[in-house]
Amino acid sequence: MRKGENIFKRKDGRWEARYIKGHELSGKVKYGFCYGKTYSEAKEKVTKCKAALVSGKPVPVSGTHHHFAYFCDEWLRMRKVCIRESTYIKYKTVIEKHIKPKLGGCYPTGITTAAVDEFSRELLFEDNLAEKSVHDILVVLHGILRYTADNLPGLFPSVRINYPKETRREMRVLSRDEQERFVKYLLADIDVCKFGVLLMLLSGMRIGELCALRWGNIDTREKTIRINATMQRLHDTEAGGEASTRIVIGAPKSATSVRTIPMTDYAATLCKRFEVTNAAAFVLTGNEDYMEPRALQYRIEKYTSECGLEGVHAHTLRHTFATRAVEVGFEIKSLSEILGHATTTITLDRYVHSSMELKRTNMDKLSSVGL
User: Fold this and answer.
1) What is the pLDDT of residue 1?
2) Model's pTM, two decimal places?
3) What is the rounded CA–CA span in Å between residue 32 and residue 106?
4) 181 near 196, Cβ under 8 Å?
5) pLDDT tens-digit profile of 169-198?
6) Per DSSP, what are the bridge partners of residue 249?
7) Does residue 259 sit in helix, strand or coil?
8) By CB neighbour count within 10 A (0-12 exposed, 13-18 middle, 19+ buried), where does 258 fall?
9) Are strands 15-23 and 224-227 parallel, antiparallel or unpaired?
């Protein structure tokens, strides 16, 4: 929408006023930009800039009177309409808990590569955050910096972000003996919750996906499980208290996470044993009352403790499923799709753990070529 000469109303609701501030050597026009919450504000700013150019005075710098916290809030507001609720809550938490307390009071022109390096160092060594957590915070910061640069063309300094190198941690995977012991424990006195835990081991589902799974998503005739939702406990941005959280059931973490998992005959038979007629009933409870991920994790810790397994959590079952699949010669592309990964690289690098037994079997194959 335009009102007046070169003054437009942007999609984000602000007014943008454009003026000619010079020409490049090629003769191409160089434009300056002013922004305002109203037409009048943008008009006033651009008028001052034009007057300064005519009189030969320095052009007023627009936007630099805002602290960096302002641009954090504006970036988040702009992103809200195009991201999932859970993503918005995570971004808001990162901004309010980490970015604004340390960088929010700076002026944009004070945000330099050195300042970001120091910010990263404080997160790692003073706040004792993991490299992965710091990386995720810096990704959000990068988005805000780009937004700030777009709104302060020619004024915002070039900032390089040096991401911390993540330490590769070996994920816990159940050995075949441990897996057999755990399955035997679950089957010995199986109930609806133990059935759900076993189904996670048999399908490679994430804990949030299992908690959100309803019987309407399981087809025992076709032997498939349809994953189209996940459950998370997230900060309640509407609540006054910082510690307030709420359960959110929404779309999975990515488009590739929406998928159909084929079941083995054994898994399908197990499902028939616990299947209920109410399609809206949650698999973990058998009714329309859900069990949240935190409560399920406590159950898993209890189960593994009672059968003598240490260091096991929900993701261990997912990693174990992926590793067993590779051990029996599962085609990687199919496995990647069943796990809901965007690429096979994620499957191979993060989720597949070759056992010593499998390594020895593959080494023995070298005997056929004289090694």
Assistant:
1) 46
2) 0.69
3) 24
4) no
5) 677 889 999 999 999 999 999 999 999 999
6) 231
7) strand
8) middle
9) unpaired
